[in-house]
Amino acid sequence: xxxxxxxxxxxxxxxxxxxxxxxxxxxxxxxxxxxxxxxxxxxxxxxxxxxxxxxxxxxxxxxxxxxxxxxxxxxxxxxxxxxxxxxxxxxxxxxxxxxxxxxxxxxxxxxxxxxxxxxxxxxxxxxxxxxxxxxxxxxxxxxxxxxxxxxxxxxxxxxxxxxxxxxxxxxxxxxxxxxxxxxxxxxxxxxxxxxxxxxxxxxxxxxxxxxxxxxxxxxxxxxxxxxxxxxxxxxxxxxxxxxxxxxxxxxxxxxxxxxxxxxxxxxxxxxxxxxxxxxxxxxxxxxx
Amino acid sequence: xxxxxxxxxxxxxxxxxxxxxxxxxxxxxxxxxxxxxxxxxxxxxxxxxxxxxxxxxxxxxxxxxxxxxxxxxxxxxxxxxxxxxxxxxxxxxxxxxxxxxxxxxxxxxxxxxxxxxxxxxxxxxxxxxxxxxxxxxxxxxxxxxxxxxxxxxxxxxxxxxxxxxxxxxxxxxxxxxxxxxxxxxxxxxxxxxxxxxxxxxxxxxxxxxxxxxxxxxxxxxxxxxxxxxxxxxxxxxxxxxxxxxxxxxxxxxxxxxxxxxxxxxxxxxxxxxxxxxxxxxxxxxxxxxxxxxxxxxxxxxxxxxxxx
Lengths: 288, 308
Description:
The structure holds 2 protein chains of 2 kinds.
Chain A: H1 5-15, H2 18-43, H3 53-79, H4 84-88, H5 92-96, H6 102-123, H7 125-128, H8 139-166, H9 170-199, H10 215-227, H11 237-243, H12 250-273, H13 279-287
Chain B: E1 2-11, E2 14-24, E3 29-33, H1 40-47, E4 55-60, E5 63-64, H2 69-72, E6 76-79, H3 91-101, H4 106-119, H5 135-146, E7 153-157, H6 165-180, E8 184-188, H7 192-198, E9 201-206, E10 209-215, H8 216-223, E11 227-233, H9 237-245, E12 250-255, E13 259-264, H10 268-280, E14 285-291, H11 295-307
Parallel strand pairs in B: 3-8, 3-9, 6-7, 7-8
Antiparallel strand pairs in B: 1-2, 1-4, 4-5, 9-10, 11-13, 11-14, 12-13
Helix pairs in contact in B: 3-4, 8-11
C-alpha cells in the first residue's frame, strides 16, 4: 500500500520529540480536570443520594462543547500555514518539481495538519467514556459526535489549506481562515437574527437556511437530537432546530454542506498549487 | 535532448524571457550565463514545469514540456538557487522522503541513498539532522535529492552560490563525476571561470534574450574577430617588433617592457612562420603564446554591447 509520502513525512516530523506528547498530555489533563470537576460537583450534592443519568448528559455536553471550541480555534492555526509555510521556507518548489500530483500534496498536508487534532480527539475518548459510568449516553451517540467533529475539522482544514495555497504569507492566510470561520459561526447567526427580525418581526420559530452552513447550528442540532431539550444550551437554537423540519436534520445538512465544501476547496487548492495551471490557456491557444 | 524554441515569458508588461532558443545535446554540460534578472531562473523554472510559458516550445527527449509537464518530471532533476530543507528530518530521512515520491522502496531505497550520499560525500552525515549541516553540505544534499529518480537531465540553478572556495571545488568535482556518468547538465552560475572549465557549451542571456550560444571556442570566434598573440623576449625587443611588422597578418602591435602583443589574423601555420622568423634572426624568445579570451571577457563584451 502506498501511503501519501507528504503525509508520512509530516507525521514523522510532527510526532518527533517531546512536543507532541506534551501537547496530548496537557490537553488530556485539562479535559480530565473538567470531567472530574463535573463528577465531583454532581456527587457532592448533599440533596442527592442516587446516580442521576442527567449528570452524565451534562458532563458529556460540557466535554463536547469544550472539544468543539478547540476544533474551531486550533484547526485554522494548524492548516493555514501548511502550504504558505512551505513557500516561506522555500521547500515547496522542491516538492512541486517531483512527480507528486498537486492533489496528493494538498491531501498530504491537510491530513498531516488534521492528524494532530484527530489525535487529540481520539486520545480524549477515555475521558469521554467516563460518562458511561452513569448511563444516559450510548456509544453510537459518542461516535456520531466524533464523526461530526471530524467533518467540521476537515471543512475548516480545507478552508485553511485553500487560503494557505492562495496567499503567500501565513499570517494573511491565518487571519482570513479565522475570518471565514467567524463568519460561518457568528456571522451567519447575526445575519439570521437580522433577517428573521426584519422579515418575520422577531419571530425565532423559523429556520433561516443560512444556518445550514453554521457548524454551531449543526452541533446544537446534533446534541438536541441526542438529548432533546436538555441539550438546548444555545438560546434560540432549540426553536430553530424544531422549525427546520425536513428530510434531514440540520446537522446532517451541515455535514453534507461541509463535505461538499471540503471537496470543492481541496480541488481548487490542487488547481491553484499547480504552477503550470495556466498551461490550459496556452494549450487552447496552441490548438487554435 | 533539450530543445527550446522561441520561448517567451511575460509578467504583466515585462518580458522576462524574449524569444529564447537553445539546444542541449545528450551528455553536455551547458552553462547558462547572464547578469542578475536576465531570465536564467525563469527559463530554468519553465523547463522544470514550475512556471508556465507565455509562448514557445520546449521538448525534452521528444516530449513537449509545456503539454506533458507531468511526463518530464520523471526525466529531470532540479536544484534551485535558493531552497530550504525540512529541519526536523535526518539526512537519510530527507532523501527517503523524495525516494518514496518515486515509489523507490525497501533495500533498493537504502542502497540508492547510500550511493547518493557517497557521491556527494555526505556518508558520514547520514544520521545528522539536516539543519545541522553547513551551507555547502545542504547544497550537496539538495543535489543528491535531485538525483533520487536517476534523471537524465539536471537543471542546476547557481549550485555553488554562497559556497566557500573549497566547497566550490568539491561541487565541481561532483559535477564532473555526474558528466562521466552520462548526465546532461544545465547549470547557471556567476562564477564564470568555473563554468568555462566545466562546460562544453554556454549560452549568454541578457534581458531575457539569448545573446550568444554555442561551444566556448565557437563563441570566442564569434566575439573576437581577431586572435591576440603575445611574445616575450629576453633581449632585442625593438628588432623583434620590426620583424613582426613585416607580416601582413600582424597588426596593432603593442610594445611592452619585454613583451610584444599584437592582433593576429591567421591560423597556426602563420603563427609558426612568425615564430620561425624571430628564432632565425637570433631573437631570444622566452615565450610565444596565443592569448585566449576567457568567459568573463566574452560575458562583459556581449552584455556591454547589449547595453550600448
